[in-house]
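User: Modeling request: complex.
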Amino acid sequence: MSDQVIEIRGLTKAYGGHRAVDAIDLDIRRGEIFGLLGPNGAGKTTTILMLLGLTESSGGTVSVLGFDPVRQPLQVKRRVGYLPDAVGFYDHLTARENLRYTARLLEIPGREIDGRIDEAMKRVALADVVDRRVATYSRGMRQRLGIAEIVMKRAEVAILDEPTSGLDPHATHELLEIIRGLKRDGVAVMLSSHLLDRVQSVCDRVALFNRGRIALLGTVVELANQVMGAGHPIHVEATGCDIAESVRGLEGVQKVTPEAEGGVRIDADRDVRAAVAARIVSAGGGLQRLSNLQPSLETVYTRYFQENRDAA
Amino acid sequence: MRREGSPFTGLGPVFLKEFSDHLSSARMMVLMLFVLAFGALPVGLSLQELRNVTESDPFLFLRIFTSAPQRVPFSFTAALALVIPLLAIGLAFDSVNSEFNRRTLSRVLSQPIYRDALLLGKFLGGLATLAVALMALWLIVFGAGLLLLGLPPRGVEVARAAAFLLVAIAYGGVWLAAALLFSVIFRSTATSALCALGLWLFFAILWPLVVQVLVLSLVAPEVAAGFGRIDETLAMIQTQAGLERLSPNTLFTEAVIGLLNPETRTLGPVLPAQMRGAIMGAPLPFGQSLLLIWPQITGLVAGMIMVFAAAYVIFQRQEVRA
Ligand SMILES: Nc1ncnc2c1ncn2[C@@H]1O[C@H](COP(=O)(O)OP(=O)(O)OP(=O)(O)O)[C@@H](O)[C@H]1O
Ligand SMILES: [Mg+2]
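Assistant: Request completed. Predicted assembly structure:
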């Protein structure tokens, strides 16, 4: 089998004259976590629905694990787990009953069902509430229950639409841990999100959607280089000297900005770490910290949409 | 574009879930209480009256269903004609749109199942529930009859009553399909309930009047006044009956008359030619009665299928995102 689990070519969706998704090409590789980013209405959900055959495309081709979601939706849906944005369950049933219903739809043999439910619920840390009615579940628990469904399904691909929306930081962290666990099991994960720093921490690659097109595609570092230019931002903390003063005139340094939590950020067009350290030491300062700053996805995102303000 | 895989994949689980949800729901309890209350009154009173009937009536048992007691103006079957639609609407008016609103639809449809199976499963689950409820009611009436009349029904009476049960289920099926249709069209459950109830009121009360007004306004004034030639008058009556039969209520009522009043020979105007050789008041054999109401039965079933098909077509084209 090929390395690609999802292959999208020229995929288009038009609502009337409006192109919600406009001829996108995308490949998702086996075992990676792929992030879909983009402002509201950029076409992320529409793309996801077309991958599952839940919305008809207006053009282009999709192959999910070698199957065509339009002609072979059952094959696709048997192997792909989907967590819709704002996932819902039957409130009057318990989590176990909800999952049992799904298990029957999946034609999981009856004697395996309860074992697989327990196993999946353990994975998402809901094992002790499996027999409680879903009405009593919090938002974060529902979201995790949605992932438990995907685990129970033993999906090869998991597509998660804004899995972290509406979750508090702790719940978000837990959920992302679970998503990393999916990856460890060899599941390819595709997720859409607005929480950029969180996406940055879990995603191997991301695509930035804008008005139905993929504006940028690649690893976070690649994106940063495309948008911000190949810069070398560093973070410096030192005592006993004025950092800005001591690095003044240093070759390559473009900008020095004090940061709220202490220390300064130095933007340079080359790696200036050694030179900065030398300057501070010679100025009599005590170097506390000198670190290479990974470009934050948030900065990339903001910068991109500032530069393409008319486009966004 | 051809789809692969059976459209009925997953039908079983959907059906079972709907069925068990209905049976365990508080709503079903309320609906049943309602139906029982409506049914108990005419049945109880007519049983009292029938106990005192001394002349021998070969179809005494069927009279429990059809006789309107003196103190209430309607029979058990008339009550059912009114209440069955309500039961069906109560079961189905929110079956699809509530899945939208609870946001379970896209999750369920992302499992290996076509929309066909989901909709059909919901319909069949509702129909099975309806069948169970009507069967229970039927058994209650039968049991009460056995106890209070103190004589067992004859085989032919049981057969006729059983056929009546099937017709009642088909009648409920039409309204179930209609409520399902509204639940597909409208995202708001309140709107869909309102529309279904409106349609019910329309057919129960307004439609016969509308037909009458319509027909009378179409024919010549002397025919309308009752002084027309016999063929003209006949044509008018037939048009009226034809139009009235567009209402499932009419079809049900006529089918019930044919089944439970074995003396019924025709459901339209009686012409002298039809009466030739007939003994007044002699019952028709069961087979003949069935033949008589066959168009009504097929009408009900066809209506049920057509309305369901409409719901199906609309549901297929709908966006799943909430
Ligand atoms: N049924 C519809 N009819 C017409 N336009 C639609 C329909 N559904 C979606 N759209 C349009 O398609 C575009 C893409 O919507 P989509 O839901 O894919 O965006 P999204 O990237 O998921 O946004 P969000 O971050 O808000 O979830 C939007 O402009 C939206 O208005
Ligand atoms: Mg979306």
